[in-house]
Amino acid sequence: MNWRLLLTPPAPGAWNMAVDEAILESIGRGASLPTLRLYAWTPACLSLGVAQPFADVDAARLRARGWDAVRRITGGRAILHTDELTYSVIGPAENPILAGSVLESYSRIAKALLRAVQDLGMSVEMKEKDDVGQVTNLSRSNPVCFEVPSTYEITVDGKKLIGSAQARRKDGVLQHGSLPLVGDLARITDALTFADESARADAAARLLARAATVESALGRAATWDDAARAMVRAFEAELGIQFERGDLSPVESTRADELVREKYGNPEWTERV
């Protein structure tokens, strides 16, 4: 249960997604330890699920706000990454934490996430199962990830707090997710396509009623460093991991730069659906 801990500085969305995939490939070759990576984004970036239509994005409004867009290799809906802590858990499929089905591994990781936000002083719970019909119908009609909690996601007062998504490939398993720390979660609606401004306002109001930040739930701000320390402690205590603080290998760094050029920074990938 020796894992690498990576704390990477705020970076553009294309690089962040490229790094996660480069680590996944390296782990698949047996060249890197299983990794917990904690990171942030600059500038703010709208990320889309792997199969989400790019038509959900209002590109003109996105550009006007100086925000980026990127497509993940994981599923789910759109997230605006800003004022948050993002985590990625990457390892071989046979690793005890990641083994089994998607839901089995989700459950293990969710227990660590739950412990982390409890460590920040929050009264939270883990959603045990979906109301399948309600979640499916909302997801189909809604481009916003944080409006709909899924099984084993973390909620506070019934509002979604952490959104996560997972990809399972021959290289291994990648799960990443977002813990919003401060700010207006409804900002994401400024960069998405709606039939009219009334529909945009309705979507913003629904989102604020169904999702939370650490600050809105706790009544005070938590810094990125606070949240990162809580994450590390929780993963160690809940999952029995022993972390070794590390850096990207030269091979991972080079591969990440290639993936930015060839994939994540390329409109042929971002706008392909």
How is this structure best described in words?
With 273 residues, the chain is an alpha/beta fold. It contains nine helices and eleven strands. The protein has helices spanning 13-28, 59-64, 102-119, 132-141, 197-210, 214-218, 224-239, 250-264, 267-270, and strands at residues 2-7, 35-39, 45-48, 68-71, 79-81, 84-91, 125-126, 154-156, 159-169, 172-180, 242-245. An eight-stranded mixed β-sheet has the order 7-8-9-10-6-2-1-11, with helices on both faces. It has a three-stranded mixed β-sheet with strand order 4-3-5, with helices on one face. The longest helix is centred in the middle third of the chain and has 18 residues, at 102-119. It is globular. The protein starts with a strand and ends with a helix. The model is unreliable at 131-140 (pLDDT under 50).
